[in-house]
Amino acid sequence: MSYIWQNKTWPKLTWDSSKLLQPLGNTRFIQGALLTYMKELGFEIQQIARADVLIEEAIKTSAIEGENLDPNAVRSSVSRKLGISNVDFPNIRDQKADGLVEILLDATINYHQEVTPDRLWGWHAALFPTGYSGLTKVTVGHWRTDNKGPMQVISGPIGREKVHYEAPPAINLTKEIQTFLSWINTDLPIDGIIKAGLAHLWFVTIHPFEDGNGRIARTLTDMLLARDENNPKRFYSLSSQMMSERENYYDILNITQKGEGDITLWLKWFIECMYRALQNSNNLLKKIIIKSRFWKEFAHIKLHERQTKVINRLLDAGPDRFEGGLKNKKYSGIAHTSRATAQRELADLVHKGILIKKPGGGRSVNYDLDWKRWSTPIVSL
């Protein structure tokens, strides 16, 4: 089995631009519409959108690698880093969540700064603050070695492992990284989205670290997209879309890394994945803007913290997305209060015009927000 880095022309990669023109044009159009619209919104909504996207990015880039971060720890870290004060953002400290959020922000806020070995080592150290990946001790903040054998991407049970990919020997890493960083730091006449996709593939092909290569590749991708857009604020999550298409993501990487240097298939998938990420960001923005409109309308209404918590759950779920509907029992569980108190607080919310009763009777009464009042068209992508 031969790999892309073993070709005589490596790291020179080629692609058929004619096959990328249409997907790239479609993606540029929807990207421009989103960014233009976001510029017209106030700082408050931009900040909420930025926080929600950052939370999603951190959780999903980890999930792609099979690591499940505590969502509340991620929300807490994001709220501290962005200076957001909100009862919906719990105060939880978690080193791994903090480290990941920190590198995502460094990459996008400081997108104009050069990528150096020290910067990459710092990101890697932040990903593994204890020096362990699960129960396995890893070399942190430096390139991998081949002391335990060649770096391989494998799957399957012990004794029946399947090798999907083998990275370049560790002895080649200094030269490989120097070439990669020289390219990534040079302003070249290449479309920014194509450069982001190429960088992603190139970095995971070099696979310079013992672990965390995928997360750092996706971080570099975000950095290059921020550089391309000249905007440190991210309003869509590429990792979230990649997670939902994880099987295709790995399949196309696998095919490309075993090819001879034509990366058209990978770039086409990457561009189209970004298009879908931009489309899905519209749904997130709708929820954020509805939430903002809602609280502006009811800013003068005095509510108990429990009521605010439950309403935010409804707003975060979106129209007809709150599983099982909001009943007395569900309210009681979310608010951690008695059924009697839940009933009084629900009745109070109905009286204040915040909730409406949906069809049902007795204990089965369902409550919801009157979504039509705040669901006016937002942006067409």
List keywords for this structure.
381 residues, Fic-like fold, Arc Repressor Mutant, subunit A, elongated
Global structural class: mainly alpha
Radius of gyration: 24 Å
Which runs of at least 5 residues are low in confidence (pLDDT < 50)? none
Estimate the mean pLDDT confidence.
91
CATH superfamily of the largest domain: Fido-like domain
Beta-strand residue fraction: 5-15%
**What is the number of helical segments per DSSP (H or I, 4+ residues)?**
14
Instruction: Summarize the biggest pleated sheet.
Output: 2 strands, antiparallel
Q: Please trace the helix and strand order, writing H or E for each element.
A: HHHHHEEEEHHHHHHHHHEE
- Indicate how many domains the architecture comprises: 2
Task: Describe how the helices and strands are arranged.
Layout: H1 21-40, H2 43-64, H3 71-82, H4 95-109, H5 117-127, E1 132-133, E2 136-137, E3 152-155, E4 162-166, H6 173-184, H7 192-206, H8 213-229, H9 238-244, H10 246-257, H11 264-297, H12 305-317, H13 328-335, H14 339-351, E5 355-358, E6 366-369
Antiparallel strand pairs: 1-2, 3-4, 5-6
Helix pairs in contact: 1-11, 2-3, 2-9, 2-11, 3-4, 4-5, 4-8, 6-7, 7-8, 7-11, 9-11, 11-12, 13-14
Report on the architecture of this protein:
There is one protein chain. The chain is mostly helical and about 375 residues long. Helix content is about 55%, strand content about 5%. It has 14 helices and six strands. The protein starts with 20 loop residues before the first helix and ends in a 12-residue tail after the last strand. The model has no long low-confidence stretch (mean pLDDT about 90).
